[in-house]
Amino acid sequence: MVLPKNIHTIHNSAFRDNIIENLILPNSLTTIGNNAFEKNKIKALTIPTSIKTIKKGAFAFNNISTLNISTGVEKIEEYGFFRNKIKKLEVPGNVKEINYRGFAENTMEELVLNEGIEIINESGFGANKLTSLVIPNSVVKIGPRAFDLNKIKTLVLPNNLKVIEVGTFNVNELESLVIPDSVTEIKANAFTNNKLTKVSLKTGTVVDPKAFDAGVVLEYR
Fold first, then answer.
1. 59, 165, 200, 201 — which has fewest CB within 10 A?
2. Over the chain (221 residues), what is each successive 10-residue block's mean pLDDT?
3. Can you give the pLDDT at residue 4?
4. Residue 115 neighbours by CB distance under 10 Å
C-alpha cells in the first residue's frame, strides 16, 4: 500500500483491522492517529522524518520484523509497536520517550539505545528476548517492569539513574551487576528471578527487602 504523496493526516483507526502487508508512508505525512494501522500484517516499516509522535497503538498487532525509526520521531506512545516481530532495533537519540508497552511482546534479541533517550516507561521493552543491554547515560527514568521477562545476561545502567523501579529487570539471566553511584533506591522485585549471587552498590542506597532473590550478597562500596 502506497499512500498519496500529499497526504498529511491519517485519522484514528483509519486502516485498523485489515490485511495490509506492505506500507510506504510519504514524507508529507505529519500525523498518524491512534490505532491507525493496528491489527494488520505489515512486515517492514520506515517512519518518515515528518512524523514526531507514534500515537497509541498505531502499529500494534502486526508482523513488523524490520523497523526504521527516523530522526524526526520524538515520542513512542503506549502500545505503539506492541506485539510485532521485531528482532533487531536501533532507537535514535531524537526519541526522548518510550511509553507503556511501546515495544513489548516482540521477539527482540538486539537493541541499541542511542544517547539522547531520556525516559523508558512501564513495560516499554517487556517480554522480549534481549540478552545484553547498554542503557545510555541520557536516560533518567526507567519505569516498572520496563525490561522484565527477557534473557538479559549483561547490563550497563546509566550514570544518571536515581531509582530502579518495581520489577524493572525481573525474570532475566543476570549473573553480575554493578549499580551506579547515582542510584539512591532499588524497589521490590527489581532484580528477582535472575542468576545473581552478589551485587556491587553504593553505601547508603535504599534497597527494598524483596529487590533481590534471597541469598544475593550486597557488597557496599
1. 200
2. 92 98 96 98 98 98 98 97 98 98 98 98 98 98 98 97 98 97 98 98 98 97 95
3. 87
4. 11
One-letter-per-residue 3-state SS of the chain = CECCCCCCEECCCCCCCCCCCECECCCCCCEECCCCCCCCCCCEEECCCCCCEECCCCCCCCCCCEEECCCCCCEECCCCCCCCCCCEEEECCCCCEECCCCCCCCCCCEEEECECECEECCCCCCCCCCCEEECCCCCCEECCCCCCCCCCCEEECCCCCCEECCCCCCCCCCCCCECCCCCCEECCCCCCCCCCCEEEECCCCEECCCCCCCCCEEEEC
Task: Report if pTM > 0.85.
Answer: yes
Per-residue cell: 125: 521493552
**DSSP strand pairing (119-120 vs 97-98):** parallel
Q: What is the Cα–Cα distance from 211 to 1, expressed in whole angstroms?
A: 48
pLDDT value at position 162? Answer: 97
